[in-house]
Fold these 2 entries.
Entry 1:
Amino acid sequence: MILTTCGVAGIGHLGEALTKQLESKNVNVFAYHPDSNRRSEFAGRFDKVEPVDFTELLKHKVVLLALPSEVIRSFLKEAQKEIASNDITPNFVNLS
């Protein structure tokens, strides 16, 4: 399977390094951060990155979690609620 698009939650050092690698492989990245201004600013620094809200992030088949370890549990708890209400099935990859 060739990855052509994915979601990335987390735009800190790990998220940025990951996004650079993905973009260099022509992967379209859909970046999420709870602060819409920060995610838009982040996406503006790349050619193949689009800022998305939480619901849109979870619509992607693969979601890479570049989040601080202390945030993972709450993120997944919220994701579980969203997944149940929208019948979507993302695959999470925890990179923290």
Note: Helices lie at 13-24, 36-43, 54-57, 69-86.
Entry 2:
Amino acid sequence: KRRVMTMSHSNEWRDQRYVKIGELAHKFGVSKSTIYKWVNERSFPKPIVFGEAKKNTTVRWLETDIQEWLDARPRDKHD
């Protein structure tokens, strides 16, 4: 299910930072296709889609969604 911005989000979005796929790939040291693979596996937050769902559609992730995902990650692989 794709996230769509609505009027109820109007105040929220002003304070949000949107992150591009390249920035995420660089931050995590993985390829862009790996980020999309994680999204498809539902192990990574879904992006917000701007425009029609076509090849050249703009997608961005909310920085707060990424931070929540990071905060939920295990810190020690022995936990």
Note: The longest helix spans residues 63-72.
